[in-house]
Backbone:
C-alpha cells in the first residue's frame, strides 16, 4: 500500500537522479530540474539521495495515504497541507493512513517542489532509472505525468528514523523577478564576435512562457548576431547548454533536453546555478556572468560535500 492520486496537479512526475549511459541512443537522462532540493528531500527521510520522488510544478497533487509514512517536501513553496492543516517544508513529517496530503499553488518562492517518501516508491526501473521522460514515454507511471486514480506503492515505509529532531532545515529562498546565472563559455563561442559576446553578458534577457522540462527560451531586446549563422554540425547537448539559434534568441537546455543539437552553444550554465533557473518563472529577468571551468568545478564539489555531510550527520552512512 502507498498513495492514491485524487488530484494530479499541473505536472507531477516521478523522478530519481536520472537515466545515465543512454544518450548515445538518443535517450535523455531526465531526472530532477532542481537537483539540490531533490537530494535534500531524500536525505531528510533517510533515503539514499538518488531515490525516486515526486517532482511537482507550480501546483501539486492531492494524495490519499493508505499507510503511515514519513515524508519531506523541499524546493519551491507550494503550500502543502495535511487534512487542511499546513505542513512544514524541509522537515521529516509523519503522515497517517487515511490522511490527505494536498500540495497547493506556489506562493512565489520557487516553482518546483520535491516530495520524498521514506523507504522509496515502488516504481520499476526502465534503462536503470525510475525517472519519467514524457517525450519518450519512459519510466515513472507509464512514461507520463500522474493522473487521477493512479496508485503508487511504498517500498519500505517508516514511521520513525534516528535523529528525528535534527531532520528539519531552513527552507530555501529562491530569486524573484531577476536572477544571475554563471556561465562557462564554449564550445561554439567563436561563432560570435567579441562585441557580441560582451553584449551577451552586458544585457539581460527575459524568461518566456516557453519554459518546461526540455528547455527555457529567453527573449532579448536585441538578438545576438552570429559571424555566419546559428547552425553547426549536430553535437552533444548537456543540462545548462545555452543554444543560440539563427534568430539570436537564447535557449537553455533543461533536464529533458534532446541529447544532440545543431545550433551554436555560446556557453553552459554552471551546475550549482541550475536550481535557481529551475525555480524561476516566465517573466523573470536573467543576467549572465562569465566564469572559468575551475570555479564551476570547485563550487560543484563544495555543494556535493555539503550534501554528503548532511547525509552523514542524519543517516550515519
Residues:
Amino acid at each position: 500500500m502507498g498513495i492514491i492520486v485524487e488530484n494530479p496537479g499541473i505536472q507531477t512526475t516521478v523522478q530519481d537522479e536520472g537515466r545515465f549511459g543512454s544518450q548515445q541512443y538518443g535517450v535523455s537522462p531526465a531526472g530532477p530540474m532542481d537537483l539540490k532540493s531533490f537530494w535534500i528531500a531524500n536525505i531528510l527521510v533517510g533515503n539514499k539521495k538518488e531515490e525516486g520522488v515526486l517532482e511537482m510544478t507550480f501546483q501539486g497533487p492531492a494524495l490519499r495515504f493508505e499507510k503511515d509514512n514519513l515524508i519531506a517536501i523541499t524546493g519551491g513553496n507550494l503550500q502543502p497541507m495535511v487534512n487542511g492543516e499546513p505542513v512544514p517544508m524541509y522537515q521529516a513529517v509523519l503522515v497517517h493512513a487515511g490522511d490527505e496530503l494536498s500540495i497547493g499553488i506556489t506562493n512565489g518562492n520557487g516553482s518546483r517542489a520535491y516530495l520524498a517518501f521514506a523507504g522509496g516508491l515502488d516504481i520499476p526501473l526502465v534503462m536503470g532509472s525510475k525517472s519519467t521522460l514524457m517525450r519518450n514515454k519512459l519510466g515513472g507511471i507509464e512514461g507520463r505525468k500522474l493522473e487521477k486514480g493512479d496508485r503508487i506503492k511504498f517500498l519500505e515505509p517508516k514511521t520513525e528514523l534516528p535523529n528525528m529532531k535534527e531532520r528539519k532545515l531552513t527552507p530555501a529562498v529562491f530569486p524573484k523577478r531577476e536572477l544571475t546565472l554563471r556561465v562557462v563559455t564554449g564550445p561554439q563561442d567563436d561563432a560570435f564576435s567579441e562585441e557580441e559576446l560582451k553584449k551577451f553578458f552586458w544585457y539581460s534577457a527575459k524568461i518566456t512562457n516557453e519554459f518546461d522540462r526540455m528547455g527555457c527560451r529567453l527573449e532579448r531586446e536585441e538578438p545576438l548576431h552570429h559571424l555566419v549563422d546559428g547552425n553547426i554540425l549536430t553535437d552533444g547537448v548537456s543540462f545548462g547548454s545555452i543554444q543560440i539559434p539563427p534568430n539570436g534568441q537564447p535557449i537553455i537546455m533543461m533536464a529533458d533536453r534532446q541529447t544532440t543539437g545543431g545550433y551554436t552553444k555560446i556557453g553552459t550554465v554552471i551546475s550549482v546555478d541550475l536550481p535557481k533557473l529551475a525555480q524561476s518563472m516566465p517573466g523573470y529577468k536573467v543576467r549572465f556572468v562569465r566564469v572559468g571551468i575551475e570555479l564551476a568545478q570547485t563550487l560543484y564539489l563544495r555543494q556535493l560535500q555539503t550534501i554528503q555531510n548532511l547525509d552523514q550527520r542524519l543517516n550515519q552512512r
In short: The chain has a mean pLDDT of 97. The longest strand covers residues 260-269. The helical segments are 35-44, 194-202, 274-278, 293-315. The radius of gyration is 20 Å.
